Amino acid sequence: MNAIFREDLSRFDELLQQTADYAGDFLGCINELPVSMEMPAIPVPGLPEKGIGGQGALELFDNRFGAYLTACAGPRYFGFVTGGVTPAALSGDWLASAVDMNAADKSSLAFTLEKETLQLLRQLFSLPEAYEGVFVTGATMSNFTGLAAARQWLGEQYGVNVAAQGVGALPDIKVLAATPHSSVVKALSMLGLGRNSLVTLSTLPGREAVDVRALEQWIAYNPDTPFIYVASAGTVNTVDFDDIAAIAALKHKHPFWLHIDAAFGGFAAVSPRFRHFLNGWDQADSITIDAHKWLNVPYDCAMLFSRHPGLQLEVFQNAGAAYLGDPAQNFNYINYAPENSRRLRALPAWFSLRAYGAEGYRDIVEQNVNQAQRFGEMLEKSGHFRLLAPVKMCVACFTFNMEDRKLAEHIRVFLQALNKRGVVYVTPTQYAGLPAMRAALVNWRTTDKDIELAVQELEAVAAAIQGVSAILENN
């Protein structure tokens, strides 16, 4: 054994404790850390011939990068719909790395643990047992997996086995949506259906939700055309929901595949206040839900729930891999999603679900929604900002009180100053053709005090930018 490996092995416990202490120090001050910063250009040294051991690597990391760690999992990071990491989820994630189980290995605990976790998630979302779940990396791969099964279904409607014959054997395919997430369009490209297969339907006035009459009209004009409809269950700007029940009812009159992108909106199901937004979702063919958003587990975790695991098997099976067994006879999750080799990402979710239960997640959702609505109310009263849509759940979409033609440049300068200060992080967006900003609250750590601090910071930066603009105009 290499001497440095031998040394690290002999001091394994000490290295783990040092790492835990370092992580503990970081988490202990996460509320005070900046949520963003300007990164300098850091020179990249070459690979050393001789290593420095685990403790040396930890010290080097701290020396080179420690000052640049930011609170991306902190209570005032409102960008990218990023949840924090619950204490139990972090324990599970560390353990997943320590035991290093291949989730595909049925000779270990991994398969049983994954199956149980998916069952817990079905119960959390009140989904019927008819849905088979599978873990993937995030909403992008979940949408990809659901739409891959949908593509196989489309092939069946035309007598084509797409998994065998390829997408070129399909006729002109249409995928319908009103306000699709970019990951849906990306998935269409990766699946060979093409971005141009997307038909964007009109929305209800002042909404991001589909006008169901537009869908009915499209069906009337294309009566014999099988298609895929991607429903929004929580749009990124306003957390708007398509009328899923009305869309599902149309499936009785015309065959189509209903995929629901519920990356974070699916968590409406955990609260009696909001679950009506999802009425009818138990009629969907496939559903995307992210775990590293409102479930607050570490990044690299999402689920795809599907009523058609047989179609997934046709697409993703490892045919001809004798060492993996017959996919049709030996159920294994690797035959139902893109990845073969993957970490046991179910374990952090299992820890957090067992630790906090349905009540804990109901409290997180309702707490964050109350905070987002309070955030919106305070922005409206500030004088600097205006909401572009009511705060429906956990996202506030807003812009400045000024002429529309000045918005884009003002927002650019504002966000540059805001991010440099690092107290709160929001992202730019576009809504109804207007340059805007959005704040997404899905973190279990966020408190009412954080909301007050965030709005105070937004107002302070807005006032400073306005003052500078006035001086420049006068000069």
Please give a handful of descriptors for the protein shown.
Aspartate Aminotransferase, domain 2; seven-stranded mixed β-sheet; 14 helices; single chain; globular; 475 residues; four-stranded antiparallel β-sheet; alpha/beta
- CATH architectural designation of the domain at 88-352: 3-Layer(aba) Sandwich
Q: Strand order of the main beta sheet, please?
A: 1-7-6-5-4-2-3
Determine the mean pLDDT: 95
- Assembly state here? single chain
The sequence of SSEs as H and E is HHHHHEHHEHEHEHEEEHHEEHEEH
Rg (C-alpha, Å): 24 Å
Number of helices: 14
Cofactor: pyridoxal 5'-phosphate
Protein name: Pyridoxal-dependent decarboxylase
Family: Belongs to the group II decarboxylase family.
Keywords: Decarboxylase, Lyase, Pyridoxal phosphate
Description:
- The chain has helices at residues 3-10, 12-28, 53-65, 87-99, 110-124, 139-157, 162-165, 182-190, 212-221, 244-250, 309-316, 346-382, 407-421, 448-474, and strands spanning 132-136, 175-177, 198-200, 227-232, 256-261, 286-290, 302-306, 385-387, 395-400, 427-431, 434-440.
- By secondary structure, it is of the alpha/beta class.
- Among the domains are: 3-68; 88-352, Aspartate Aminotransferase, domain 2.
- The strands form 2 sheets. A 7-stranded mixed sheet has the order 1-7-6-5-4-2-3, sandwiched between helices. A 4-stranded antiparallel sheet has the order 8-9-11-10.
- Strand 10 (427-431) and strand 11 (434-440) form a beta hairpin.
- Helix 4 (87-99) runs antiparallel to helix 12 (346-382), helix 5 (110-124) runs parallel beside helix 12 (346-382) and helix 6 crosses helix 11.
- It is globular.
- The model has no long low-confidence stretch (mean pLDDT 95).
